[in-house]
Request: fold
Amino acid sequence: MSTENVSQNVSRNVPHTILVTGGTGTLGRIVTERLRTAGHQVRVLSRHSRPFAVDLREGGPGLDAALDGVDTVVHCASSPRGGDEDAARNLVAAAGRAGVRHLVYISIVGVDRVPFPYYRTKFAVERIVEQSGLGWTVLRTTQFHDLVHQVLAALAKSPVMPYFSGISDQPIEVAEVADRLAELAAGPPAGLVPEMGGPEVRTFADLARAYLAASGRRRALLPVRLPGKTYRAFAAGGHLTPERAVGKGTFEDFLAARRKA
Reply:
């Protein structure tokens, strides 16, 4: 066995002190659970989570305290309302002062291809992470089932349900992403790792029908196509990764689990 492999095995077997930003969110909460189950000491950082209630966009001494003695950071905190780049800069600077060994960042498939403003921000944060001087790992995944469900639920409020014509999606189970992030956090920095996509590429019309069937609603479907290069990039599949369809749970599996919950 090579020295590198020995180092990786030792790294994965030794408990770490890990900070999860956004650790109360949809993804961060499960990542935290996985890491604690594996025996790691985990700190949760969010705007309202004590004792590490910190707004990353502002930084400050609370961030330095949260990072004191931390080996690895899993950066899940993000907001479509803005501020991610400032948050990343503050986190990177504080992590450098604290001597953090490894920064793991969760990104989105297509951030380098689709000119959607939130995607551009995520891509900019990737650059901040890569240029941080820290050991780093970036994982890109397709959208979570939860987000697709949220979008479809909003669209279904109308008696006629619009959907995005010509666009497909490849939703993935958030728990599978959490498993992968926990694995990456326990290992050495790995750079940009292979993407994770859901098991199926599905048209939005197909996903809408699955949602309606599961929710017991009846809606006429109205195809809608929007102008602009962002819509064209989505229609071209810039946010998909069919060659990396590694997810197992389907959208129907997700809907069935919600019904049982």
The chain has one domain: 3-260. The longest helix spans residues 84-98. The chain has a mean pLDDT of 93. The CA atoms of residues 201 and 242 lie 7 Å apart.
